[in-house]
Amino acid sequence: MHGYDIINHAELNPEIGSIQEFYDFVNTLHYYDMGLVVDIVPNHMGIGNENKWWMDVLENGQASRYASYFDIDWEPLKKELKGKILVPVLGDHYGNTLSSGQFKFHFNHETGKLTINYWEHEFPINPSSYPMFLEHRIEVLESRMGSNNTDFLEYLSIITAFKKLPEIREKNIASRRLAELCSRNQLISGFIQENLVDFRCEGNDSISCNRIHNLLEEQAYRLAYWRVSIDVVNYRRFFDVNHLIGLKTENPLVFTSTHSLILDLIEQEKIDGLRLDHPDGLLDPTNYFKTLQSEAGKRLGINFDSTEANLLGSEKLPIYVIAEKILAPFEKIPRNWAINGTVGYEFLNQLCNLMIDARNAKKFKRVYQRFIESVPNFGELVVDCKKIIMKTSLTSELSTLSNHLNRISERYYSTRDYTLNNLREALTEIIACFPVYRTYISQEQKGDKAIQFIKWAIGLAKKRTLYTDPSIFDFIEKVLLVELEDDKDSEEYRDTLKFAMEFQQYTAPLMAKGLEDTSFYRYNKLIALNEVGGEPVHFGISIKDFHNHNIRRLERTPHGMICTSTHDTKRSEDVRARLCVLSEIPDKWQEKITRWSTINQSRKLELDKVLAPDKNDEYLFYQTLLGIWPCETPNEAEKEVLITRLEDYMLKAIREAKAHTSWVNINTPYEDAIKGYIRKVLTSPENHPFWKEFLPFHKDVAHVGFLNSLFQCALKLTCPGVPDIYQGSELYKFTLVDPDNRKPVDYNYLRQKLNEVKANDLYPLESGKMKMFLTSSILNFRQKHQDIFRKGNYIPLETKGSKARNLVVFSRQFDNKAVIVVVPRLSYNMVSEATPLPAGEEVWKDTSIIIPAEYFGRKCVNIFTNQEFVFTEERINAGKILNTLPFAMLFI
Q1: Continuous H helices in 658-760
Q2: How far apart are CA 197 and CA 244, in angstroms?
């Protein structure tokens, strides 16, 4: 298995190791009492020479046994593609590629197969079109061999076989006959080699070009310039990635073929759980999860009832499954999903907002607006960005949907007057207004929330559209809710349902590309909030709301994952923690960025009366620089690495934003100006005014950022859910979006720091050793007292006093054992050079924690300091518990 570009679901990637090495790895895990959760990608495959299914479809088209495995539209709007697959791999227009001789025909004498090569790409030729090649100059071969020559007659017989025998098996027989003939007759073998020369286009040889073109026209695929995929690609892709094709996992044959190895490993107890990548790409995730659990249950001898209404988080699930599902803040996982929970992005964003000072929401928004000299509306921005994606990278899929919707409208005399353009415009507006990634309507279910979201989007679209017939929206609503037909057995009903479900498959990647990969790079108010599953306009949550989220998670998905960093996060947990500090000091932040911008004004370039970088990109740069700049002064080599990282990040960010440049249309002058600006700023001498302004501010923010990192680490390891620790995050890790966050981890260095922690060497704060200490201490405690966290309840504890809003306190309890977790937040105004940690009674003064009556008279111990307490009163001073460290966990 290769991951995203998987080509064979039945094998492990040999580049990683053999099946025996995998078994050895699992046995080692089991020896250390560990398990394995495997990330699987059921939604798509990589296409290319090594994918046998794909190559078979290219060779045989719809006649291939694998044609139904892939999500291909064999009857697209573009009539020239009927029965064909568009393959957009060319680096230039097809005509230029052809006439420049980049297509190379190849004949394999051992297999009798003909292929055409384009650089590293190899494309099979359909055997039924072999006669166009084999008959070329046939009279020359006849004159050389004689018309009655036995091998010549066999050659003619093979050509006839290719013409008349459409069965794939028989085509393979004919190819083998051709290979055998070539192996014994050098004249025929040489003749074929000569034909290969004639099927080569060089210079202005229009005859040879037409010869190649005519043969390619007979294939089940159409080679095209990669840019063509923007408009007419006719297979479902993973987002807009041309080399990743969607699978019809809802087809039982496809499910069996793609899950056989995984289910075998589950049966052998080599795998303990599954992480499902991109479930929103599946046609019917609900039924997929039920099928997955049912098949796993059969392998494990567990009877699983998939008809139960409440499967989410059920203890009866045969196999542990989590899904990479992105939820809006107002959205919940469907109860009938047979999974244990999500990968935890909801928790990440709740925790991030808990580090935000919500009181400064309006003030911080004004800081951003004043700096960029604009007043962006995030809701409108998202709609606009989604429309950009529909006009660029995901246009083809929208065309397919519009064409399908047009066919549905033609079925009824009441809707036949709706034009394709009108339907497409209305569909575009509805999708742009869609409030969630997708809905989950199927033949078995609709759901109140799905109906609500669809009506919501259509209502907004109606209001925004002045020139489209309003009745079109009513028609589309009936289509999406599958209300046009009452007879569920009718072909019309099934076709309408098919459209509604394919619509759902489209809105998910559209939301991801429009929101996460465009809007999040345009709206830079506080980029810590621009995270997967995040809402940048939501500026902070209360402690009460955070507790309520935890209580609901414990009720619904107690064993779902909770994360703070992943391979997909836009920034590492520690970068976010540092940037959240800005929410506490909006006035200082405004003062600093205004000063920095003035100092660096001369480093900008004027391009077409626009300064580069513009104010929005400059605002993003300052936050990013603040987020990753180290506390220790970097040497020249380290500084060069930082410059390169920032250049790479900013180029990616501005291309994703698509305001001045993009991946498809690169604006080299603007990008060069950005890189030049970064280099000029960061290579300034140490005594430059910018550094004098930046470094002291960075030092203060970074210090509180470290405290935030400890805060979120403690909560992730103790709140309801399964904590996910991303590789290398045991220490502070200041990384940006991929590929910056996917570099190899220095595990020897981590071991060294862990040994220092064991020796109680926790300082200085910026070393990260306190985070390592916190992580290792809680994990060791969890291992010894698993039931507290796996089965225990969650009880928010009340705080009183002047700093009550700065303290998050709760207990986890199971049977007669419990822990009380105490962590401070919003610490900027509680620390100073004299008091670097929010610890001690001088800091917390009158702030106290209300102790539940059931704990009165009981002894507890702080697992981090071994300090013992006996609860003798209703409340205890926070400074007594947080007397030396900025976190505490009391074991009762």
Answers
A1: 668-682, 689-716, 747-758
A2: 34
Highest mean pLDDT among 201-215, 348-362, 750-764: 348-362
Give the neighbor-by-neighbor strand order of the sheet with 341-342: 37-40, 273-276, 320-323, 341-342
Q: Which residues pair with 275 in a beta bridge?
A: 39, 322
Q: How many separate domains does the chain show?
A: 4
512 and 586 in a single domain? The answer is no
- Whether 455 shows a pLDDT value over 90: the answer reads yes
Residue 758 included in any domain: no
> Are 671 and 593 in the same domain?
yes
Question: What's the longest Cα–Cα distance across the chain?
Answer: 112
**Residue 675's CATH number:** 1.10.10.470
Tell which of 233, 249, 283 closes a domain: 233
Cβ 822 vs Cβ 888: under 8 Å: yes
Asked whether the predicted pLDDT for residue 3 surpasses 60, the reply is: no
Interstrand relation of 37-40 and 273-276 (parallel, antiparallel or unpaired):
parallel
Distance CA 336, CA 540 (A): 31
Which residues, in sequence order, are bridge partners of residue 241? 238
The closest alpha carbon to 240, from 553, 595, 517, 549, belongs to: 517
pLDDT digits (tens, 9 = 90+) for 78-107: 999 999 999 999 999 999 999 999 999 999
The Cα–Cα gap between 55 and 57 comes to 5
| Residue closest to 461 by CA, chosen among 471, 453, 473 | 473
Q: What is the 3-state secondary structure (H, E, C) of 36-65?
A: CEEEECCCEEECCCCCHHHHHHHHHHHHCC
The whole domain housing 671 covers 577-699
The model's pTM: 0.94
Q: Is 760 exposed, middle or buried (0-12, 13-18, 19+ CB in 10 A)?
A: exposed
Write the pLDDT tens digit of every residue in 258-294: 999 999 999 999 999 999 999 999 999 999 999 999 9
Domain boundary among 477, 503, 521: 521
* Same-domain pairing of 810 and 677: no
* pLDDT at residue 131 tops 60: yes
Beta partners for 244?
46
Token pair listed for 776: 């290792």
pLDDT band at 610 (very low <50, low <70, confident <90, very high): confident
Question: Does residue 333 lie in a domain region?
Answer: no
Structure tokens belonging to residue 724: 């996910």
